[in-house]
Each structure stands twice: as structure tokens, then as C-alpha cells.
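User: Hey, quick favor. My workstation is busy. Could you predict this chain's structure for me?
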Amino acid sequence: MVSFPWSILNRPIDLEVCALRRRVSAVVQTSIPAQAASLAYFAGGTALVAWLGSLITTTSVGSVWFDELAKPVFYPPPSTFGVVWTILYVMIAAAGWLAWRAGGGWRTTLPWTIQLGLNLGWTALFFGTQLPGWALLEIVLLLAAASWTTLAFRRHDRTAMALFIPYVVWIGFAAVLNGAIVIMN
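Assistant: No problem, here it is.
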């Protein structure tokens, strides 16, 4: 008679190995066309928001309204914004795609899409309609959505989470700038 080896139940389960198996399985099971389509969604969606945001921003930056806004002493030089946002948008797209590839599905794509929409919404409120007070309320929602996205990424892909953290920090900084502008004007 063969007895069950009960000692195996006392071994700790290596959660990292289990997570790695799920990750590999998710990538292997995803077809090349599906991966290409998802990459197009994340890269295209981010590029669209970046492009629309730049169209909205260029109508206000350099305008009388924007030039006359009182800005805090810690307001960065204008050239900083283009460089920072270009890098962040690449990281946003890459993070979304990595989390999806790791098996995040709608659990990562939904918060990613919501935060991207709120990103564009803030730009439209602040620069498009020139309503910094409303933009301040909206950026709080954006910060919450970006934090939610980061936590969703953490459950599926740590690299995606790491790529998203600088964006969350920048949104926090932007919220402080937005708040200072509201107070000073």
C-alpha cells in the first residue's frame, strides 16, 4: 500500500514561481495578431491623447491668458514639459501593454483607459477652457485613477508598475502646480 506523502503539504509554496508560470502562460497563449492589436491599442491610444493634448495646449501656451497667470517659483521652464511628457507617454503605453500581456486583461486595461481619458480631460479643462479651478478638481480624479492603474499593474507585472510610478509622481507635481496657480490667481 502506498501512502500519501503528507510532507509536501508542509512545504512553502513559491509564489514567485506561480506568478512567473501565469505570466509565461499568458504570453504564450496570446496570439501574435492579438499582441499586435493590443500594442496598437496602447501605443495608438497614448499617441492620440498626446497629439490631441498638444493641439489643445498650443492654443493656450504663449497666449495672453497663460502669460498673465501668476505661477509659483517652482514652476519648471517651459521646455521641460515637452521632454517630460514625451518620455512619460512612451512609458504609459509600454506599461499598459506589458500589463495586458502579463494577463491583466480588462483588470488593467480599464483603469489604464480611464486614466488616459482623464489625462486628456485635464488638458482640455486647464488649457482648452482655461478653467484652472475645475482642472484642479479633475486632476485629483486623474491622480486617483493613475494610482488605481499602478496598483492594478502591480498584481500582474512589476515592470509595468515601475514604468507607471514616474507618471503618478508627475501628476502629483502637476496637481501642486495647478493648486498654486488657482491660489495665486
